[in-house]
Amino acid sequence: MIAPIVRDIAALRAQSEPWVRAGASIGVVPTMGALHDGHLSLVAAAKARCEHVIVTIFVNPKQFNTPEDLANYPRTEGEDARKLERFGVDAIYVPDGDVMYPEGFSTTVSVTGLTDVMDGIYRPGHFEGVATVVAKLFTQSRATDAFFGEKDFQQLQVVRRMACDLDIPITVHGCPTIREMDGLAMSSRNLLLSDRARIKAPILFEELEKIADGLAAGAPFADLHSSAIARLEKAGFTKTDYLELRANDDLALLEAPTRPARLFAASWLAGVRIIDNIAVES
Ligand code: AMP
Questions:
Q1: pLDDT digits (tens, 9 = 90+) for 117-146
Q2: What confidence tier does 241 reach under pLDDT thresholds 50, 70, 90?
Q3: Is 39 a residue of the active site?
Q4: Ligand 1 centroid to 75 CA: how many Å?
Q5: Is beta strand 171-175 parallel, antiparallel or unpaired with respect to 91-93?
Q6: CB 208 within 8 A of CB 276
């Protein structure tokens, strides 16, 4: 089934109005397009749980840190619509920049605390951009449920906090990270990796797994961390922004998994920033 592509708020509202009136569940899956199986797993989760599903595709300029990154971001709308056909989603919402941010737009949604660490430090303004656009997508779609990937775990927690703090009546569901056969977390940015870099890219995930195994065996995090950084450098990762153990709920820095925790990493390979995270035993 080919889903209608809607490009403005009025058309989106016209679609969802009868669903809202009928008290139906509406799932929203916010994406920036260049859809891969990770995105599609969120769509499948939304379809399994909700009576109606809206997929949004918007390359949100406010969450990019450099004009180059925004310009290089892959855009594949026709292909994306084709990939969504088999899921039978009810609408694909593809707003233009001036639909989301018309002239005079002046509001920023800023979540404190959770954004003081990791990508909040290395990508200034990124989470404000995310929280602002997601708050708008939630209210525009009037969804009852939203589906986000654990691949971007910090983002997931920021979105949960934002929806709770702004009293937006929506349940935010976290979905597991989908990986390539070699372990690399699927990401639209993987398209930017050269063939050579693509072969090395799964090493980041392998190092996270080694640390998780080491922690389970009782090794100190600091030791596991320094050997992982050394191996990443040897493999060609030029800079690791962070490689940290943090609590799931408030993202507090931990030295040992004394409560539910994850390992988080962001590292650069051949000019591409790769992020990943995995759960550890607590
Ligand atoms: P993006 O298009 O990168 O903004 O991602 C849209 C949504 O897809 C976010 O909730 C991401 O966390 C999620 N996502 C991206 N990659 C994956 C993946 N490999 N597995 C699961 N979810 C993912």
A1: 999 999 999 999 999 999 999 999 999 999
A2: very high
A3: yes
A4: 15
A5: unpaired
A6: yes
